[in-house]
Amino acid sequence: MSSERAPASPAQMVHLTIDGRPVAVPKGTTVWQAARQNGIEVPVFCYHDRMPPLGACRMCLVEVEKMPKLATSCTLEAGEDMVVRTQTDRVRQAQQAILELLLVNHPLDCPICDKGGECPLQDNTLRFGPGQSRFVETKRQFRKHVRMGPVLVLDRERCILCWRCVRFGEIVAGDDALKGFERGYHSQIATPAMEPVRSKFIGNTMEICPVGALTSATYRFRSRPWDNRTVQSVCPHCGCGCATTLNVRGADLTRTRPREHPEVNDIWLCDKGFFGYEFVGSPERLRAPLVRRDGALREATWDEALGRVADALRSTSPEAVGVIGGARSTNEDDYLLLRLFRGVVGTNNIDFRVETAYPQPTSRAAWGLPVAIADVERADAIVLVGCDLTEEYPILWLRVKKAIDRGAPLVIAGAWEPEVARWAQHRLIHRRGGEAALLRALAGGVRAEDGAAASGAPAEAIRAAADTLRAAPRALVLAGEAALEQPGAERVLAALDELCAACHGAPLGILRGRGNSGGAQVLGLLPDMLPGYRPLGDPSAREAVAAVWGRPVPSAPGRTVRGMLEAARAADLEVLYVVGADPASDYPDARAWEEARRGLRCLVVHELFLTRTAEAADVVLPVLAYAEKTGTVANIEGRVQRQDQALLGPGVARSDAEIFVDLASRLGSPLAVASWEQVFAEIGRMIPGWAEGARLAPPRPGAGAGRDGAGIPDGPLPRPEGALALVAGRRLFDRGTMAARCPGVRGQAGEPFVAVHPEDAARLGLRDGMPCEVRSPRGALRLAVRVWAGVHRGHAYAPRGYDSAPVSVLLDERGPVAVTVRPLGAP
Amino acid sequence: MPEPLLTRYLGQPGREEIDAYLATGGYRALARALRERTPDEIVAMVEASGLRGRGGAGFPTGRKWKLTPKRDGETRYLVVNADEGEPGTFKDRTLIEGDPHQIIEGMVITAYANQVHQAYIYLRGEFFLGHRRLSRALAEAYARGYVGRNILGSGFDLEIVIHRGAGAYICGEETALLESLEGRRGFPRLKPPYYPAVRGLYDRPTVLNNAETMAHIPHIVALGPEAYKSYGPPILYSVSGHVTRPGVKELPIGTPLREIIFEHAGGPRAGRSVKAVFPGGSSSAILTAEHLDTPADFESLQKLGSMLGSSAIIVLDDTTCIPAVIRRTVEFYRDESCGKCTPCREGTVWLSQILDRILCGRGRREDLDLLDSIARNMTGTCFCPLGESVPPSLRASLRYFRDEYAHHIEAGACDVAGGPHR
Q1: Whole-number Cα distances in Å, A398 to A265, A371, A792
Q2: Taking the domain B238-317, which CATH number applies?
Q3: Domain co-membership, A552 together with A565
Q4: Are the Cβ atoms of A59 and B337 closer than 8 angstroms?
Q5: Interface predicted TM-score (ipTM) of this complex, two decimals
Q6: Tell me: the pLDDT tens digits for B298-318?
Q7: CB within 8 Å: B339 and A183
Q8: Domain end: A257, A281, A305, which one?
Q9: Cβ neighbours of A74 in B, within 8 Å
Q10: Which of A510, A522, B86, B110 has a C-alpha 20 to 30 A away from that of B377?
Q11: Is A815 left (phi over 0), alpha (psi -120 to 50) or beta?
């Protein structure tokens, strides 16, 4: 199949006549596109402008002079002097004929169909159809509305077999989720044996389905399109910041749809984006402040709760106050957090990176993409190191897929095989800890054999991948959490720099962070950074901030999350203020958190739900979710986008910003904030280029900048007999605080598991599905065994993000852990 | 009447084995081609012979070869379409079962002429005997050095792979065949802009010819174009239906239908007369006894609104109920429609439902216009020739045998003597 025809340079124009109108379009434009560009609508069903033309539905027939037959305008390239007619009797006759044929086996159940009101078949029938049918026979029948997993409902009777969904899976997502089965009038869209559909992008097929054949299980019968109010928003999940539209009916969020943003998500969304909205309306949302009285959390007034917090802050020296979180708040919330804690309280103990025990300094390895998301598809080669792309940043995969379709090779390095491995030209599955040696070998800094010996990836494969990369003029290197969340990360970073240099100066993207991490980073919710990526150590930067705030900024660098927890254990940190984060589940060492909690005098938590962290707090403040407040967020490429309020919050919940403003007043330094716009404007006074839609990508220093990491020696793993090295990865569908309250996400996540290589499974007597105990020196979990050849031998993979079995129980902030996996008998 | 060329040795015991083939001069054309002719000379000979593709469309073979770009360093393929599925057609099957080396020799010469080193035969899955014989013949040809590396010491290499279809008529359509060969669902590809000659198998230039076409090649090379033409040029008619001696008849192209049916196929059974004829498989418009003096060639049949197609002549005598025959052909296309495009997928099933109703005695007067209207709506709107094959015979039958349909509608029964249809 030819790829989408890119219009040639404007110099090569072709001139044609459509409906008597002279038209000039770039060479390579189809007649259909030429018509549309000139305001002439030709109806289509199978054609979709994000995929190459197919020509199957025959709806777009037009008359072309000198052609004996009608031609499908979606497949016909516009030619010089072509004379096209779209409104003749012959064309209208053909359009009526095709619509009549499409409708003979369509149930016409529009009154009970979700698509009714936004249905291309309905619309085209009204505009171009025959008005009545001559069909008096029996319609084709299928079993109706088949559940194809937690989110997709298939109605084959409504299907007009346009093949869009099948081609989406083949061309755009590359997951082949839905396929055509049988042939002729038995043709149907399905999965093998009608199994639940396996895809991370299936919501898009519901969007592009021109009829009600593919509908959403979570939206089904919830609303009619004309009853939905639409509100612009930004997806709060992975950090890509996909543009969305929220649909609201009354006080209910009915669905999330992608909003076209060519630079970010184009017109797509992953299924977490599509279905990860229902937590907002969960009855478990916190509705009132809670304070600990007599050992238990009890409902309180805002006045009482904030009074407690203000007292705690007033009675503690600034160095003994710490703030973690901020990646789930808006930029304006976060900015006020800084004004409160840096300016009023006077502490630099601020860090949004809750889920990391090995933070590399931002000045050395800022999180995020140094290029725009849209630029990913233009790379000539892509190296993916320790990042499970479709699990972590699915929308980026769609860009990578486009690069692959252009011929760019994908090189994958990791301790397990990501889902997209089948698209990779080179797969280097290696031992955890071997990243630096492997990357240096790829860069040519050490021999392939040495890289192989240290990493366990075959030397031949390393050499082949290195040759491939050397041949690419504009490669892109993307490294993720799995490569960098470890003691030796400084060496991994150095090796990444070496690899980028060897790849003709390829840009390096650090794919980390979730939600509004991008905003938290650019604003400087970090112990050593100020807004706009300016280091705290720079006196002029501090002065610039102080000038706007009218208060001094403390100069001593603060503590990281890990530093704060260590300080709490040593009783050096007394008050910990957690903003939209759950370190008890997510900090990669649950026991370290518990010990730290015991050392705290006061723990304050802003939350939507009573998380593990909130349960242990002294004051819990109910806050608004993303859909309940207006403000801006910044994504993984640093792009600032606005999200609008769609709903009122539950109970007396407040925005983070309101809480910070109130606390500042209580502490005697009112912040005088009138609106989010005012805060947004004030940020603009501090960060050059700050504007809606602007991209504030982190500056990328050369190698060697910054200080050393946490200073933990990374010797060989202590490995008891039969133990496996534990690697923790993220899953798109998990059962974290928010996901667990979204049936469409939770249902796809399944139960938590541990994956082991078949050889290890055989050795340890483990079978697929069997319950087992996974024990590390820090703790133990009961998980289900998954036997999986994609994980490197000698390793055990466990997913993060399952609140019922947090992998942090097993993890140790001091270094990699080895686990024993013991069967617990037959399931 | 010239001697048969392609079918001369058909039916001789052991003919499918290589020694029998060699004994009658087999593979000599190949040896001569490799030693004495350049590839371009062979292309020129085939073009001069006037050979037209025998798959149904009748595209001149030499011109097709010339359209295939021959760029250095670019892989090209030869694909032979032996997925013979057109109802009434059995000439390829007869050659494959009866004289398979002819096809293999033709393929090697064609590959040499087009400088192709990898060839595929897409063989209809139901050809069990054909598969056995062709596989054995291919193994013999490999063993004797007529296929493989350095053929007959010429330095020319060719690998041939036999690929069996899985029972889909659509895979006889050349682009669907390529999709299927590549391991995908048998859907026809979009053309234009690219034809298989330019972008075929695995997006590479591909010479795609019918199996019978291949069998003509050794004779053209052996005899030279002029001598070859003096044989007619020859063509294989598959004659079936209500005749006493059905079978493959090798005759000069343009032999009148009457001569083919009455002289070569023995005519109808005693006391019966010819009522209707499909001259080129079930895709061709049905003709009546009045048309029997038409020469069976491309142009003459086209003038009648029919076509030579795969030259499968299906003879129907006066015991035949035409609406029942048409229903059966519509059912065939309904069942074999790939489902890709709307008119073919939906039109065929609708037509067959209406025909069912008429034949069950529940027809309505307006159904005849409706049938014709649906058929007209399908004409020129389908994605590939499969759907376009339905309207011609249906519409021709409505024209020539309208009374028969009307009788079914009015009387609720069949008026054909010699037994009611089922």
Answers
A1: 9, 16, 26
A2: 3.10.20.600
A3: yes
A4: no
A5: 0.94
A6: 999 999 999 999 999 999 999
A7: yes
A8: A281
A9: none
A10: B86
A11: left
